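Before the break, one more example. Copy the sequence into your notebook; we will annotate it together after we see the structure.
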Amino acid sequence: MPKKDLNQLAYSIVRQATGEEPKQAESARAMVGRTGGLKGGAARAAKLTPEQRAEIAKKAAAARWKKP
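Here is what the structure looks like once it is written out:
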């Protein structure tokens, strides 16, 4: 961790004491990946028939409730 001058150190201590967290900007790659993920689910749902969706849901429920 790089050294901070006294003003930066004081500011970070106040932020920690008040519980204020600095906002982290999403990276460009993360935003692109999220956009692709949002599109993918809708596209997949649109191309599946109701029977296929039901089969996938049953398989997911079985995996979720499977005894370890």
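The radius of gyration is 23 Å. Residues 40-68 form one domain. Try to locate both features in your own notes.
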